[in-house]
Every structure is written in C-alpha cells, then in structure tokens.
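Could someone model adenosine-5'-triphosphate with this protein?
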Amino acid sequence: MSAIKAPRGVRDILPDESWKWAFVLNTTMEIAGNYGYSEIHLPVFEHTELFSRGIGETTDVVEKEMYTFTDRGGRSLTLRPEATASMVRAYLQNKMQNGIQPAKLWCAGPMFRYERPQKGRYRQFWQIDFEALGTSSPMVDVEVISIALDLFNSLGLSNLDVVINSVGCPACRPQYREKLKNYFQNRFNDLCHTCQSRLDRNPLRILDCKNENCREITEEAPDIYSSLCGECKDHFDMVLKGLSSLGIHYQMDKRLVRGLDYYTKTAFEILSGELGAQNAVCGGGRYDNLSEAIGGPDLPGVGFAAGLERIVLIMEQQNCNLGEEPHIDVYVIAAEKDVDVEVMSLVSDLRTAGIKADMDFMCRGMKAQFKSALNKSASHVCIVGGDELSRGVVTVKNLGRSEQSEIARPEVVSFIKQNI
Ligand code: ATP
Ligand code: MG
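Reply:
Sure, complex below.
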C-alpha cells in the first residue's frame, strides 16, 4: 500500500515557496494600512444558505463548485468558496453599522471550489479580499480598484489590464435581461448547451462563456449602457471619472458580468497576459443587494478578491522581487562528538542576541555540517571543538571572505553581531 496522498487539486505550499507568500501577505498588510483597512479573520465554513442565497443559485460556484457537507448535528455547511458573503454576514452579526462607516475590512485565507485543476486553478486556493461596507459612494469603488492596483504595483507586477463594466441594478437589469434574451433567442441553435440552459435562468452569464461560438455571438450582443437607469448611469460615470482623475487606465467591456449574482453597478477585473486561460488576477465590484439576499437590511458594499497563487505565479514569471529567502546568519559546527551542549549553548546565545543561528542535530561529520551551512546561506560558521573549548575560544569563519579567527567564547556573539 502506498502512503496516502493529498486530494486532487490541493497543494502543499513548501518552504521554497511559502516565503514568497509571506512577502505578498506582508505587502498586502502594509497597503491595507495605508488605505485604512483593518484585518478580519473569518471562519472557513458557513451555513450553506449564506452562499446559495448570497452568491445566487444559478451561478457556477453554487451549482457546481461548492464543497458542501452535513455535520454531525445534521446542518448543511459549506467550505467558503469566497469571502464576500462571509464579510457581509460578519458585518451584520457584529453590528458594525454602529461603527465608523464605511467599515473597511480585509482578509486573506483559503477558499474552496470544486473545479477542474490546472495551472492557476486549484480546489483549495487563497484569496486576498478587500471590502468596504456601508456606503454607495462611487469614490469607494474607485478606492477599491486603486488598492488592487497599488498592491500589484507594489509587488512589481506589470502589464495588467483593468477591465470595467456596469451590471446595473434590480431597477434596470431586468430590462437588459429581456433585451439579451431576445437577442440570444434568435441565435439559440448556435449557443453551446450550457448557454442554451442559461437563456431562461441567467442570460447575462452567456456573455462570459468561453466557448468560441458563444463568444462570436456575444460580440454583437446589445450592451447594457443604453439600459442603465439614471442612478446606475451616474454612478458608472463617476467611477470612470474618478479612475481617470487618478490616472488609472481602464478598458470597458460590456461582456464582463462576473460569475456571481450579487453584483450591482460596478464590476471589474484585473487581467494578466502571463496567466494564459486563467487570466484574472483579481475580480470585484459593487454588491448592494447581497445583504438583503441573505436576510439583512439594505447595505451597500464594494470590494475585490485577488488570487494569491496567481499573483505569485506572475511574480515568478516577471522576475519580480519576492523578498528575502529565509536564511541563517550563523551555523554552529561541532568539530567532534560530545560538544553538543556547548554548541547548543552558543546557538542559544546567538539567538538571544537576535542572530539567526542553527546547528546540526544529526552527529554528522564536519563536511556535511559545512554543506548545511552553505545550504542555509549562512554568512558565518562557528566551530566548537575540544581543543578550542579547553582554551576558551571558538573558531569563527566568514564564509564569504574565507577568513577565520579564534574568538574568546564570551566575545563571540558581539564579534558576529559586528560582522553580519
Ligand atoms: P475565473 O474566471 O478564473 O474562474 P472567478 O471569476 O471564478 O475566476 P472570482 O470568484 O472573482 O474568480 O475570484 C477572484 C480571484 O480568485 C480570481 O481572479 C482568481 O485570481 C482567484 N481564483 C478564483 N478561482 C480560483 C481557483 N480555482 N484557483 C486559484 N485561484 C482562483
Ligand atoms: Mg471561476
């Protein structure tokens, strides 16, 4: 019997990659602070209804992608496929309407979707999520888009496209739905099977079908702009104006409807050519009806979610600075047996002084210990041996300069501190 492996579509983020994630997350935390966003930790599972009602029954996520299970108490729970619905739930449950508005919150963590695994698409993946709840000001939409761009720019990503659209609101979208339905009805036979079934349920989703034929048909489809109500039109105009005033270039795309039903007014994505078929680094928009859909009061909100794996993929491909790979400053080598206690004590003194130190625990020969020192990118090694020990000294070697000297044991820490 072979050892059990992880389920399909999930990955271990190994030490050779995890430090890159930490770099992205630390940068995110800094940017969040600059924009006045506070971190929130949300649960990984919620009542299934939060997502089925919040995201919408006819979306791909709810129809096909959720990890839903019944717990021992007979409740239907779902591993979160995204964070927005949970964020709104947390706002309502914790009465954040009584605090400063808008509540500006961010979080990062794993999301779960039952999808076909491929490059940049996993069944467990991380999202960085920013949401501003409690205001309908179009300037918050602008702020949210500029946070995403600021984050990606700070990480050094280049060649990104901001794509934006308005998806209207319950006052004007039904009209547009009808227009679309009529248009697609006439081309029914040319649509793929999925889109044929979408025609009655959710014709807007046909607009973002990836099928060649459907894409051709949607090119000529009516756009929403002439159907937008006065409020949605004004809102959209203000968002575009705000973006321009910040020097943010964008493309309008009438086919951008996003996969989730809760969007109202602004919908946007940031795309990278580096990602192939999975080209969205982040997606977001306004969702003024989400709160009501999950049984809450009227609560406007806007935000975005960015895929952490995809960010790191692009950064690797574009050779961006990913921060510093973890390393050790000093590796303490035992030159003979039975000096483990002295080695451990020196390592401990170094660590207490804030120096990154490590040692061998495997009783290996000096050569192997030197190799470990190099592997861990140590700039110095200390060699502890019987003869030196009896003289009260330690050999300190600067690996970069191949210099070595004997230092009195009580001076070792301050000597190294001066030299690293
Ligand atoms: P896609 O069109 O690629 O399926 P989406 O519209 O389903 O994306 P959103 O729900 O907007 O994605 O999620 C926001 C971001 O999360 C995406 O832009 C992407 O970077 C990331 N993401 C979504 N699904 C996955 C996944 N299965 N694996 C890795 N990252 C993902
Ligand atoms: Mg998807």
